[in-house]
Amino acid sequence: MTAQGSVYSWCECRDQRTGRRLGSKCQRRGQPGHGSWYVSVELPAGPGGNRRRIRRGGFPDRTAADAALARLVMPATGGPADHLMTVGQWLRHWLDSRAAPRFSTLRGYASHIRLYLDPCLGQILLADLRTAHVQAMFTAITRQREAEGRPVTVATLARIKATLRAALNAAIRAGYLADNPACHAELPPGRRPRPVVWTTARVREWERTGIRPPVAVWMPAQTAWFLNSIQGDRLYAAYHLIALRGLRRGEAAGLRWCDVDLEGATAVISQQLQQYGGHLAACPPKTGSSERAVALDRTTVTVLRRHRAAQEAECAAMGAGYHDSGYVFTGIQGDPMAPGRLSRRFRQLSAEAGLPPVRLHDLRHGAASLALAAGAELKTVQDQLGHSSIVLTADTYISVLPEVARKTAEDTATLVIQAGYRVPGTRRPRRRSGLRPLRRRVRAAVLGDASLAHPARQIGHPARRIRPARPGGWIRKRRDLGT
Fold first, then answer.
1. For 87, phi and psi rounded to 5 degrees?
2. Residues 6+ apart with CB under 8 A from 116
3. Within-domain flag for 168
4. pLDDT along the chain (483 residues), means of 10
5. Would you state the pLDDT for residue 191?
6. DSSP secondary-structure letter at 23?
7. Total Cβ atoms within 10 A of residue 227
8. Do 332 and 266 contact (CB within 8 A), yes or no?
């Protein structure tokens, strides 16, 4: 056996005297029914130095065995090992050579590999990986998390699958695989969570049960209460900007004074801050559409002016110990603000305000809902949030506030009622005769007299016609029915 593996022939015939298999000593080996070809490959030693060997058999001839060995053995150059590669080795090699524009992407890849992919698939040869292995991994993850009392969401499974699919696509480009087994694995159907509004009834239910929706937004009055209650906090301007203009927390943390034009009431989103490995780094926004100019209202401009004056006062008080980083939202010593710190402080402030719980990112959802309630067009909201697709804006980031929904329902009902008193296709009022059958039926229902429901049964009932006085109201005039 060489370092690259070996192929050999083996026969299952037995010695008549000893009963042992003849193996390679069979005199009829190579004839039909006698012997088949096998592949043997030596794996790198495990963590404890144990020897590991892979053996595959049942090939009809040496050509088929050589082809199987070529699929198992990795090319000698350009790979993470000398001769044979497992899924775990390839995942680590792929992660080390991966170049991503955002640190959060690399952090997600590393987390998925460490927690799920390497423990479940790491010992399988890359060439032997099949869809059944991937499917079994998802089943094992689901059952284990359910046993721990922490059910895994469909979104988490989808992200794990996306990481594995990206790594195996790189293996295909490198020539190690011909097909991607992760593409054919099936996951339970998932639904994107829609933001729900913290109405009075929903708040009471949360106080009673403690169950909160995964994505929730405040009512306009609740948002105003929160902003009014934190006006004394030094990060008030950050939460004001996020709540009204819908910035992501990384975009707010990465905002610099050179990107803000207070005279022109505009803020340019050109970068974001992300934290990886305990270090902050500036990177491009999430998508190309996220690079945008955000219009600022007069109130927000005033808030930012006050924030800048307070920041200059801190710089003067700190003196030489102050680090002027140029960012809008900083720490006490002027260093850039970590996005995680914005989230932690937001949770504290919202709890102190006595409001139902929302995430900092949910303020972004709320900003979209507030813009819709204020009469903004959907395209305007899309540009404000920096989405590449208007479908994402409509399906995920917009919650219809109760006031907007009720106004729409009333307007729809008024439209239908008013249309009933006009000739179809015109604005001319409908003639009185056109409503007579409907009036008879309504009159019969009001008086409880079935004889009035049909024109042939109106003999002896000299009642005037019922005419509409206003939408939803009726006038009944009788001459000789004792009313």
1. -65, -40
2. 137, 141, 160
3. yes
4. 62 68 63 68 58 66 73 51 73 84 79 93 88 94 90 91 94 88 89 83 92 89 95 95 94 96 95 84 87 94 96 92 93 92 95 94 90 85 86 71 73 74 62 52 53 47 48 46 42
5. 74
6. G
7. 17
8. no
Using an 8 Å Cβ cutoff, are 254 and 102 in contact?
A: no
Provide the residue type at 400 as one letter: V
Q: What is the CATH number of the domain that holds 211?
A: 1.10.443.10
DSSP string, 236-270: HHHHHHHHHH---HHHHHT-BGGGEETTTTEEEE-
Residue 253 shares a structural domain with residue 325 = yes
pLDDT recorded at residue 101: 57
DSSP label at residue 117: I
- How far apart, in whole angstroms, are the C-alpha atoms of residue 160 and residue 114? 11
Rounded to whole angstroms, the Cα distance separating 383 from 179 reads 39
- Determine the pLDDT at residue 177: 86
Considering only CA atoms, which of 184, 52, 173, 71 is closest in space to residue 131? 184
Specify whether the CB–CB gap between 69 and 7 falls below 8 A: yes
Q: What is the pLDDT of residue 156?
A: 92
Q: Please count the residues of the chain.
A: 483
Directed axis angle between helix 220-229 and helix 236-245, to 10°?
A: 170
- State how beta strands 196-197 and 216-217 pair: parallel
Co-location of 171 and 207 in the same domain = no
Residues 230 and 315 in one domain: yes
pLDDT of residue 420: 67
Q: Quote the pTM value.
A: 0.66
- Asked if residue 34 and residue 116 are part of one domain, the reply reads no
Amino acid at 309: A
Q: What is d(CA 80, CA 85) in angstroms, rounded to the nearest whole number?
A: 8
Clarify whether residues 174 and 201 are in a common domain. no
Say if residue 271 is in the same domain as residue 363: yes
CA distance 220 to 366: 8
Query: CATH code at 140?
Result: 1.10.150.130
CA distance 161 to 152: 13
- How many domains would you assign to the chain? 4
Q: Please report whether residue 466 resides in a domain.
A: yes
The three-state secondary structure class of 452 is helix
Task: Tell me the residue range of the domain where 178 lies.
Answer: 87-184
Q: Give the separation between CA 314 and CA 308, rounded to whole angstroms.
A: 10
CA-based nearest residue to 195, from 250, 246, 269: 246
Inter-CA distances, 6 with 12, 44, 45, 53, 123, Å: 19, 15, 18, 11, 21
Residues 214 and 356 in one domain: yes
Q: Give, as one character, the DSSP assignment of residue 39.
A: E
State the Cα angle at 288 between 282 and 291, rounded to 5°: 65
Local structure of 47: helix, strand or coil: coil
Q: Which two tokens stand for residue 385?
A: 């949030």
pLDDT for the residue numbered 226: 96
